[in-house]
Amino acid sequence: MCVLIRSCLKLSIMAKKLIKRFMPDAHKVRSHKHLKFFGRLLHDPNLWHLNRRSSSGAMAVGLFVAFIPLPLHVLTAAALAILLRVNLPITLTVIWINNPFTIVPIFYFAYKLGALLLGVEPQAMTFEPTWDWLTTQLGGVWQPLLLGSLLLSAGSAAAGYYAVLGLWRLSVVRQWEKRKLRRRR
Length: 185
Known about the structure:
Blueprint: H1 2-22, H2 26-30, H3 52-66, H4 73-84, H5 88-94, H6 103-118, H7 131-184
Helix pairs in contact: 1-7, 3-4, 3-5, 3-7, 6-7
C-alpha cells in the first residue's frame, strides 16, 4: 500500500510539472475563434491559476461535461469553467476524454446503465450517422441514455474532483516531510 501511495505522489508531482510545461498561453486561448465571444470574462486570473481548488474543480467540470450527450462540449465546458472560476485549460483538455474513438463505448455504457436502472430492456440497434436515424431511433433510447449519462457524469466528476484533491494533499504532505528531513540534517 505504501509503495502505491509513493508512486501516486511521484506521479502527481510529475503531472503538475507536466501540466505547467504544456499549459497553453492565456493569450492564445483568449484569442481562440470559438472562445472569443466570452470577451473580458476570459481575463479572470482564476481561470489560469494552477492550484488545488482550480485544478480539482476543472477536473470535475471537464468530466461532467464530457459524459453529457450534447453538442458543443467545448463551449459548454468553457462557460461552466468561467462561471465556476476554475482552470480553463485543464477543463478544455479533460473534455476530450469523449472523442470520436471513445464516444460510442461511453454512450453505449451510459445507455446500458440507464436501461438497467429504469428496468427497461435494452434495444438492439445499429448506428447510422443520419438525420433519419436520429429522429426515429433516438426517441426510444433517450431516457435511459440521459439517465445513464447524468449518473456517469456526476460520478466521474465527483471521483475526479476528490482524486485530484487527494493527490494534491498527498503531494503537499510529502513535500513537507522532505523539508523536515532536510532541516534535521
